[in-house]
Amino acid sequence: MFNRFLETEDQVIADSLKIRFYPISVKSAKGTRITDQDGKDYLDLAAGWAVAGIGYGHPRVSSKIKEQYDTLSFTSQLSAPEQTMVSLAQKLIDITPGSFPKKVWFGHSGSDANDCIFKLVPLEKNRSRMISFMGSYHGQTLGSLSLSGHPAQSRFIGSGNVVKIPYPNPYRPPFGETDRLTDQIIDFLENEVFKTVCPAEETAGIIIEGIQSDGGLIIPPDDFLPRLQEMCRHFGIRLIFDEVKVGLGRTGKWFSFDHYGIEPDAVVLGKSLGGGLPISSVVARKEMLDVGTGIHMFTTSGNPVSSTAALETLKIIEDERLIENARHKGEYFISLLTELQKKYQWIGDIRGKGLAIGVELVEDRVSKTPAAEKTAAICYRCYQLGLLAFYVGIHSNVIEITPPLTLTKDDIDLAVSILDQAFSDLEEQKIDMNLVKEYAGW
């Protein structure tokens, strides 16, 4: 049945709107499980690119959005605001660090939120340049694409005012040495970039992911983000954190930068914020967002239904202690994956915080040659065995684990057992690589 559906879908849906890892067709979802159109259940480790942070079909969100739609289905908050958006903004300000005056901007996705940063930060600082990182993924609109440094956007020429520098990747150090990695990146920025192509006095902001998600779940050295904040303050440069994918409890704290005591000038949110409904936001210093009236707005921004879903999602995260669950279950998950790494030499590195975990596959641990086709094969075989996982990374060789934060210990035991079986099947050449080739590399 679903094969016929996928054939029809392929005929009417643009390829530019697709990124596929296996031929799944979804009928329903609940909690941590997805059901396909043939009735087969899957444990979902992707959460729809981390959107289903509180799980699928949460009854509290369902009830709230129906109530809100019946009461007020829509008002354009640009011209006729209502209470829900204001309450959501107040809650986001409360959970975001920094005692300075803050305001909130609302949009629909991480892309338009990062577009807000791209437009407003240079305007506020009256400086023309921005800095981002190689491997970063900030979105698909022209502004967010310009800030990105991921191969997925490399076919497009973004704005020339953005300079991209290496991200401090401990497993693949950009300058060849792991020792003093933070010093290497900061020195390169201050003594090369600032003195050549991007003067500090012309740099408005630096945007960074506290964990570089689509770049491969890369976690920087512990001292890097504090050093970056110190440098930004010294030069009067705005420090912006893209928390679209790893924010709102996924790392075991509200935000990834909370692990390091950072107070960003702006925080970008999206994906899981709406509990499955489209909504994004920027929480920033007041002066950063008050640079002009109506210069970055969308008719349905902060609409009452999406705002209601987001407000209830934040309450659920607190009430169900999902931040603590992410921290504890993440530690347990990594411990089991580490044991799995001892069995299979293709597992080069395991890294993560909370339930943002990356498993990097290599051809061998000495050369660290990325094993992209093997990664695609593992994800495909997991799908066949009832487990959904996506892969990421600039080399397409990192299995990304970003499940709902409601994940249980039994879920993790099941996931690792399926991963074990997939690796064993790959080792014994039981996976049909002709089927995999269609889904290898994105």
TrEMBL record:
Record-linked InterPro entries: Aminotrans_3, Aminotrans_3_PPA_site, PyrdxlP-dep_Trfase, PyrdxlP-dep_Trfase_major, PyrdxlP-dep_Trfase_small
Keywords, sorted A to Z: Aminotransferase, Pyridoxal phosphate, Transferase
Source taxon at top rank: Bacteria
Pfam families: Aminotran_3
PROSITE patterns, per the entry: AA_TRANSFER_CLASS_3 (PS00600)
GO molecular function (one): pyridoxal phosphate binding
Similarity-based family: Belongs to the class-III pyridoxal-phosphate-dependent aminotransferase family.
Protein name: Aspartate aminotransferase family protein
